Amino acid sequence: MKKVFYTDEEQAILAELSSYPAAQQMQILEDSVVAAENESDRSALKVLLLKVKAPQAK
């Protein structure tokens, strides 16, 4: 298994995501996975950043 090292910015994104309610976390992650299916891990995290910074208004 490959070790992944996150930048400070990425760690902040993950910390912010963990402060969301569980159902919203799952929705953001599911949306990010769908949006980044053909992207690298790094790109997927950038998609996640966009979702965390601008969550959908539902």
Number of helices: 3
Reported for the largest beta sheet, the result is: none
Q: What pattern of helices and strands is seen along the backbone?
A: HHH
Low-confidence regions: none
Q: How helix-rich are the residues, as a percent range?
A: 55-70%
**Residue share in β-strands:** under 5%
Strand tally, please? 0
Rg over C-alpha atoms, rounded to the nearest angstrom: 11 Å
Overall 3D shape: globular
Domains (count): 1
Please state the structural category: mainly alpha
Average pLDDT confidence is 74
How widely separated are the two ends? Answer: 37 Å
Key words describing this protein structure:
66% helix; 3 helices; mainly alpha
Describe the structure.
With 58 residues, this protein is mostly helical. It has one domain (8-53). 66% of the residues lie in helices and 0% in strands.
Write the layout of secondary structure elements.
Elements: H1 8-18, H2 22-35, H3 41-53
Helix pairs in contact: 1-3, 2-3
Task: Sum this structure up briefly.
This protein has helices spanning 8-18, 22-35, 41-53.
